[in-house]
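Can anyone check this?
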Amino acid sequence: MTPQPEFIPFRTPADRGWEEAQEIYRNSFPRMEQRPAQEHLRALADPAFEADGIWLGQQLAGILYHWNYDDTWYVEHLAVSPALRGQNMGSRALEAFCRDRRVILEIDPPVDDISIRRLRFYRRMGFVENPHDYIHPSFSPPFEPHRLVLMSYPTPLTDPEARTFADFVRERVLRYSEREAPALPRL
């Protein structure tokens, strides 16, 4: 029997697996999508943010960093340890996390093989694309806004839900970045 993924939040850098989780984070996302280390530590103190390690027994299998607002969960970062990629770990973790939740995440527009595979993965997991024009600012310099596709589970976002999400990201999530007074995202 395959063990089920367990989500254990990191509270401080002294927690078991912290360094390995940070390595997964640094190696899985472009720099502009990464929160600076000092801002990441500040975000850990925000009750709306949780930086979960995805564990299989004693093995750190990946990370799932997410925010909660108005009974909606925003998956900011999901990544699987390179040693476990291709073994359905991401599917298993996301399926467990999404159970009985309203979830939003962002992906790159599907323009190349990797981004098209990512879109197909989230579709298989029950996520739907939303038609909202969504531009997200980067966390770190150079501050280059980038277009993303909003995906939601299990149903599409209404216009008010999409606006509330963009406001939450701009006003709460981006507090923990190197940006000052972000103007994006806006719908």
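Reply from J.R.: I decoded it. The longest strand covers residues 59-69.
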